Amino acid sequence: MTITIFKMDEISIHQFNQFHRKFTVSSKIVLDMLNGKLTWAIMPVEPYGKEIPIEDVDPSGFLNSEDKIVFLAEVDGALAGQIKLITWWNGYAYIDDLIVNPQFRGQGVGKALMEAAIQWSRERRFPGIMLETQDDNVAACKLYQSCGFVLGGFDQYTLKNFKPNETALFWYLIL
Questions:
Q1: Considering the entire predicted model, what is its pTM?
Q2: What is the pLDDT of residues 93-105, one digit of tens each?
């Protein structure tokens, strides 16, 4: 299996957002504070399906930009994933979207995309990278932690209108 990561360009732009965004939730993150530090554990839940909505974004704005980029991943020539980064209001790089097609999950594609994002952020001398995910996306949380990110905060009200209720989790990597 060969994972190839490349910057989206005029030739590959048609592959933007061509991903299956459904997954099964079978556990959630449970937050706690220990000696002033935010900690987390995994709690099983009754399984249910979830689909992350696709944002209506014009991908051409990411071509030839210094402030934002999309990396695509292929596995043996098949489209496997994407990661979208933007410059955030606080001067950090912000991972706005990371998605891996189901048949390639758990095979290192997400990690390879994260490594490309970290390299791009270092080259641009960002002080850090941040992102937001939800407490029911445990696989993503494990990936972020394995890439050196730390859980820096949460917001239990931002996603209160979603069913079931979700908590937004904010992850940070200081470069």
A1: 0.94
A2: 999 999 999 999 9
